[in-house]
Each structure stands twice: as structure tokens, then as C-alpha cells.
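Chapter review. Work through the record for Universal stress protein before attempting the end-of-chapter questions.
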Amino acid sequence: MTRPITAGVDGTEESIAALDWAAREAVRRGLALRVVQAWRFQPYEAIDAADPGTQAGWVRDALDEALRSVTTRHPDLDVATDVVAGETVDTLVEEAAEAEMLVLGSRGHGPVVGFLLGSVGQQVIAEATRPVVLVRAGDRPTGEAAGREVVVGQQGEPDDSAETLRFAFETAAARGATVRAVRAWTLPPVFAYSPGSMHLLDEAGGLEPFETKALAAALQPWRDRFPDVPVIEHLEMGSAGQLLLSVAARAQLMVVGRRAHRTAVGTRIGSVAHGVLHHADCPVAVVPHA
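C-alpha cells for Universal stress protein:
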């Protein structure tokens, strides 16, 4: 089934940046673009907008205005729009399930660095079953210039990051970009060693060679599938989040995986994804693990 790229908009500057990003990506991939605005009737006694029809008309007019600039720049793009009545998080999660990816806007902490990931964005990322891309206000096509990479975090066994690597390689192939695959490693605590793990490390020649082989094994299926995509294997000792952020300046897109963790105070998306979303200055794709 061919899925569209879906952009969630709400009329803000950051959602318009997300719409522009989604349109460019849809053109590159030869996919349709679906633009959705979640809307819920809010009674206003002070103004003449007490009926749902009036407010829905305002929302539709704002959506049409945003689309005019997109269709002007991409006249051949297949675009569909919808104003969906309902709660924002529920609507976006449902839309994401039917999309190749869901693209949302996010307000930056400042003019240069980071995202302000509100409760809606965090819930959508945590609950979506498809990739979610966060785009900051002010994002420009120049950020996708030749020479900038698709940076992806890899961890664990090959199956653990298969969906994350798939997304990174597909994106790089559509853009003619290089994939920089980043794997961080640390010294395990003494109690984590076992006879079995020590045997594997001995066979590999030590911790760093073991990690090098693990990264190569995870990448090999995607090198075979996308032979024209250049790949840089980036292995360093340290924190995964800090290592990804150290190469963020090279990235036109940062791709990270996530496993959502439900706690008594809400859903958490993992420290690496959370840190990258708050501090990277490029669009970030969060891909749920299979």
C-alpha cells in the first residue's frame, strides 16, 4: 500500500515550516501529501463565532491559505486536505497510522538550537506507530544542501534498529545524501560480564572491535539494499545522545529510534530521543522500534 506523507498543521509558523518540509519530501519520494488540521469547537461569547460552522470555516480558510503557497511551488504534487473534528493527539496518532510519516512543527528554544516539545508532540511521538518528523519554525530548504548528511543512531542488535536504519537509508536515497550511522559504546559494569559475553569479546578482539563489528552487521542489509547510498560508520565511546548532537551540524535530518515508557507521571520517549529533540537544530525523525 502506498502511504502519503501527512503534515499536521494549526496555522502557526512552525506548522507552516513542517508543511513546507513535508511537501518537499513528498516530491522527492513521489508520494502524495495529506494535510490535516485537528479542530474542536470552542464557544466564544465575546465574538460572533458561537456556532461550529463559523469556526470550522475559519479553520478551512486558514488551511487553504497555507496550501496556496505549497501548490504554487509544487504544482504537480498530489495534495489532499482535511479538517478533522476531535482531540489533537488522538487525531494525529490516527493519521500517523495511515501515513508514510507524520510531520509536525515544533517551536525552538531559541533562534539557533532546540525544540520546545510540548505535551501534544510528546504524546504523539510516544503513541504513533509510524515515524514522526519534527520541524522547527524557520527551517529552510538550504538545510538540505548537498554535503549535509542523514545522521542516524544505531544501537543493539541488527533487528533492534532495523526500522530506524530503513528510514534513514530511504531518506538518503531520495535526497542523494550520505548516511552517517552513529553507534556509541561504553564500558559495561563489572557485574555485567558473564562467561558467554567474555567469550564473544575475546573472539572479537576486545570491546571496540566487538562494537565495530556490531555496527557493520546492522548496516550490511541496508548497504546491500541501497548500494548507491554512501555510508560513514561513526563509532565512539560515550553517551549516545551527546555523540549524536556532536555531529548535528552536519545533518540535514537526524533519525533516532524510540521505545515509549509509560510511567506514573506520563509517557516518556527515552533519553536519547528526548535529548536530540530538545537540542538538535535540524529536523528530527523519531522512528518507533518494531
